[in-house]
Amino acid sequence: MNEIKFSDLGLKDTLLKSITEMGFEKPSQIQAEAIPIALEGYDIIGQAQTGTGKTAAFGCTIINGISKKDGLSAIILSPTRELAIQVHDELRRLSKYDNLNILAIYGGDSISYQIKALKGNVNIVVGTPGRLLDHIRRKTLSLDNIKYLVLDEADEMLNMGFIDDLEEIIKQVPSERQTLLFSATMPDPIKKLAKRYLKKDVKHVAIKKTSMTVSKISQSYFEVAHKSRFEALCRILDFDQPKSSMIFCKTKKGVDELVECMQARGYVVEGMHGDMSQAQRLRTLKKFKEGSLNFLVATDVAARGIDVEGVTHVINYDLPQDVESYVHRIGRTGRANREGIAYSLVSPKEYPMLKQIISVTKSEINRKKVPTVDEIFKNKSNNLLKEVADNIEASDNERFIPIAKKLAEKYDAVDVIAALMKSSFKDDLFEFYSSNELKAPKADSEYVRLFFSIGRRDGITPKTIINFIKDNARIKTSHIGDIDILENFSFVNVSPDNKDKVLNKCMGVKFNRRKVNIEVANKKKKR
């Protein structure tokens, strides 16, 4: 039986062009089964675990059915701001050649900016239920002409207490719309919701849950700023000195650029992606299997089906688009029941994807510090000492003894050894590194999350809550991180050094005639 391709699903050419550029050749199971049915106009209940490609399943359906001139035609509900941003970003990539305007709206972002953006020609809105309701009530968002309604991760929205908000929003959307409901599980309240608001001829697409275990593989991640990604990779490779490693990039262009940079630094590396001929790919793969290449840089598509013994490291230079791809990538190591190592370089924008990978795979992915120059030098020196010791014990150095004696006669033995070590390090261009230590970017993980007993009903906006904290605790805006504003309460991230200031100076102070209670947020309260 032939494999299904995106070109077999009935999608328009502009959408297929975007999909090809994103590096996807064949649809996931949920995409292959849901898209053709959705294109026929049926309501859908898509049941599949997180990380299986549900975003593209509903995204392709919507983008295939609308044009820029149609105005606001689709509304997508997501449980969290992080997921809303992910969906927004993927839909933008999918709609590249249709030039659709897509807007993400969620709590913690400027509502005045969102109101201004909604006045423009927006085609698709992706948002969290609370903020969407906020705009509906303010009459800054009209759902009168919506053709597509998507409930994404419906079970998560139920778990977070959004079921009433969902119903209120659904009632505002025209009944002749097409509804696409996606959920990993189908608890009773979601079944009732579907029965009440989806059409009678709704189609149920259920994808069997597959195991996403990677127990034999040691997984770690490094926090890196985007501009420092290449230097971080070089430090990691120079420290670990893997004999055989696969490095993954999201795009073909990314592969070409990384290979060029690595070759300039002296690494024995080649790339593999979809623009290369089959003959080129086979030649590169042959070299990698034979060990004449230490590193192979590839896209997900190009690496599919590659089975090479002895790959000790898999490195995600970019995190993939979905969890399934992550599992496939790191499965290139730890073959034949051996242990393997998987590293991921993660910038602050990629933290939500990392959290999703950890949640779905139930993996322990430890944070590691990018090696310093001193640590790299020490590790390489230890490896060299071991190599020398092994050669001495092997007692097969007779050919070199006359040279050693001549040097010993003329120079001090320590000076001779130091000079030889310097010579062995001549290809290690430590001057490439900007400093001894590569500092990690400041991330939300470095903030403390505080619960505030005031929310939208009290007239709170990101600007007013920032001013409230600044005026009372006397801290700078730069020490305040993400802000999530809900109906009755809010969450604010502050730097650890300023946590006590906020608790002591803002607690009990009135905002709009209400005393504010503040406490360190319980993890269960997180949005």
TrEMBL record:
The keyword DNA-binding does not apply. Keywords: ATP-binding, Cytoplasm, Helicase, Hydrolase, Nucleotide-binding, Stress response. The keyword Magnesium does not apply. Gene3D superfamilies: 3.30.70.330, P-loop containing nucleotide triphosphate hydrolases. Transmembrane segments: none annotated. Residues 4-32 form the DEAD-box RNA helicase Q domain. Residues 232-385 form the Helicase C-terminal domain. A motif (Q motif) lies at residues 4-32. SMART domains: DEXDc, HELICc. SUPFAM superfamilies: P-loop containing nucleoside triphosphate hydrolases. Its EC number is 3.6.4.13. Residues 35-204 form the Helicase ATP-binding domain. InterPro entries: DbpA/CsdA_RNA-bd_dom, DEAD/DEAH_box_helicase_dom, DEAD/DEAH_RhlB, DEAD_box_RNA_helicase, DeaD_dimer, Helicase_ATP-bd, Helicase_C-like, Nucleotide-bd_a/b_plait_sf. It catalyses: ATP + H2O = ADP + phosphate + H(+). GO terms for cellular component: cytosol. GO terms for molecular function: ATP binding; hydrolase activity; RNA binding; RNA helicase activity. Belongs to the DEAD box helicase family. This is ATP-dependent RNA helicase CshA.
